[in-house]
Amino acid sequence: MFNPLLGVVFHWIGGLASASFYVPYRGVRRWSWEVFWIIGGLFSWIIAPWLFALIQTNDLFGVLAATPGRTWFWCVVFGLLWGTGGLTFGLTIRYLGISLGTSVALGLTAAFGTLIPPIVSGEFFTSLLPSTGGQIVLAGVLVALAGIAVIGFAGRAKERHQADGRAPGSTAHDFKRGMAVAVFSGIMSACFAYGLAAGEPIRQATLTAGTDPLMQGLPVLCVVLLGGFATNALWCAYLIAKNRSAAQFVGAASTHAATDGGPTVYGERFGRSPLLRNYLLSALGGTVWYFQFFFYTMGESQMGRYGFSSWTIHMASIIIFASLWGIGLNEWRGSGGRAKALLTIGLAILIGSTVVIGWGNAISSGSM
């Protein structure tokens, strides 16, 4: 029996994990981005997925060994493509700013990741549009996209207000280039949803092996995240070679700024790094990142007929909790009344959209 409202709660928890995973990285000292990112990534994409799948599912290796090569291929390929979307997200932020860049990229990711799978399968026209529950789900998706747009306007108003008094040209924003990168990043990031859809044979196999339905998505994550790991590992290896930062793994300090478009090096410029602290914080950040999809797959298992709508709830939840983190970290201080009002409205719309989508799924699954 499906429980879409419980699924929404799981998606909220996953969104909280996604919005919070970078917090431990803020405590890393004297390591370059590429060093702490690949250490955290080992836990995000390899250690945590396989560990939890081994613990929570039955006959993991047998299930994956029996998985058709075509399924492996598409899961890994979509994981690779998703990885490129994540890497170019930093450039989106550089060219458009945090709020506008996040809203454009995640808005496109939500739209493509949610709507393309049912359109390709034919379910959009044969099941979603003709049914009341499907229409409510679709309405919830559209409401979520509207909420993302409002959050984007709020962020734009915030940036403009906070930019008053700064010298002209003091930002590196480039709207045209940023929009092009944001479209690429958004579409590629949606490939994670396609990878999960391609892994349906793995779900069926693990259920046949006796796995709890709530945990059926964990083996799929093992395969999709292999592709994501490959993309990120190649990029980090390039940066490590370029910046000569390999010695940081054994305690040498960074003496350069990050070059990936993300945050610069944390901590002091010179001196040895606190090695154990850095490894533990990176491992924590990576594991928290994984939990977004651990709870995502649990939520998706409860959504019933229109499980693809999980992707919109996931994106909306990330933006909700990321915005709340921004408020808690005083990023909205001095942003002006208009920006704060738009932020409040946008958050209310996003929260409402997740409830609407859960309601539509509940009607479709017969639980209401």
From TrEMBL:
<feature type="transmembrane region" description="Helical">
    <location>
        <begin position="95"/>
        <end position="116"/>
    </location>
</feature>
<keyword id="KW-1003">Cell membrane</keyword>
<feature type="transmembrane region" description="Helical">
    <location>
        <begin position="311"/>
        <end position="329"/>
    </location>
</feature>
<feature type="transmembrane region" description="Helical">
    <location>
        <begin position="61"/>
        <end position="83"/>
    </location>
</feature>
<keyword id="KW-0472">Membrane</keyword>
<feature type="transmembrane region" description="Helical">
    <location>
        <begin position="217"/>
        <end position="241"/>
    </location>
</feature>
<feature type="transmembrane region" description="Helical">
    <location>
        <begin position="35"/>
        <end position="55"/>
    </location>
</feature>
<dbReference type="InterPro" id="IPR004673">
    <property type="entry name" value="L-rhamnose-proton_sym_RhaT"/>
</dbReference>
<dbReference type="Pfam" id="PF06379">
    <property type="entry name" value="RhaT"/>
</dbReference>
<feature type="transmembrane region" description="Helical">
    <location>
        <begin position="341"/>
        <end position="362"/>
    </location>
</feature>
<keyword id="KW-0812">Transmembrane</keyword>
<feature type="transmembrane region" description="Helical">
    <location>
        <begin position="6"/>
        <end position="23"/>
    </location>
</feature>
<feature type="transmembrane region" description="Helical">
    <location>
        <begin position="279"/>
        <end position="299"/>
    </location>
</feature>
<keyword id="KW-0997">Cell inner membrane</keyword>
<feature type="transmembrane region" description="Helical">
    <location>
        <begin position="178"/>
        <end position="197"/>
    </location>
</feature>
<keyword id="KW-0813">Transport</keyword>
<protein>
    <submittedName>
        <fullName>L-rhamnose/proton symporter RhaT</fullName>
    </submittedName>
</protein>
<keyword id="KW-0769">Symport</keyword>
<feature type="transmembrane region" description="Helical">
    <location>
        <begin position="136"/>
        <end position="157"/>
    </location>
</feature>
<keyword id="KW-1133">Transmembrane helix</keyword>
<keyword id="KW-0762">Sugar transport</keyword>
